Amino acid sequence: MVSRYRQPALITRKTRTEGFLPLCIALLAGMALLLSPLVAAADYAASLRPYTAQYKTTARGFSLNVTRRLKEDSDDHFILTNGGKILVVGFHEVSVFTVEDRRIQPISYVYQGTGMVNRRRELHFTGEQDTISSLYKDEWYKLPYSDTTLDRMSQMEQLRLVLLENPMAAREITLRVADGKRVKDSRLVLIAQETLQTPLGPVDTLHYERLHDDPDRKSDLWFAPQWDYMMVKTVHIEDGDPVEMILTSATIEGEAVAIN
Fold this sequence. Notes:
By secondary structure, the protein is mainly beta. It has helices at 20-29, 44-47, 154-165; strands spanning 3-5, 51-59, 62-72, 78-86, 89-100, 103-115, 120-126, 131-136, 139-144, 149-150, 172-179, 182-198, 201-211, 217-224, 230-238, 241-252, 255-256.
């Protein structure tokens, strides 16, 4: 049973708006990649190299530039950020995690909308209390904790770790993710190996599809093995509206990626 409680000090007022901008921002914020830890590696943390990736997102004729960045601090914490802005609307999200016992261990996740869409989400993973504190629509919820539960961003890095160790082990993946008022399982299935045309040139990729219960939703994702399985493209369709995000430039450990 999910319990709910208020924590006034962190509650942020939500402002509603209509049209393309909030739809685009909401879909972008939910476009995380989904995977559970299936394969052991000798040193997972060593496989996570810092990177910066620039993406162009298009929806309904509008475009938005999004920057995703992974870095590691002196306390062995990984910090993954993601964000972008269009006109007066933007978003910024941060996931902080460590790598322990061959899997990612989330510490916190924060999403903050800016401008016209002033919305905030938070997750705080408190394993010693067997709970996850979740802020959603100005209400706090207590969700059940497990050491395999990820947040919406850290799941991307778990996917990359598994693929780096053994890409063929990830033909079909089930993931547990804390999101809003619930913890949910998601599935990702490998569709094909494809050469994808991108602004950087033709890139060899693995094409995955995220499975949805709703037939009106569809999500496809492509990852590049030659670039540490970095996300190259996503296409998400909901209620007939497609949102596409494609890589335009990137660096890994400060070195620009290039077509081999």
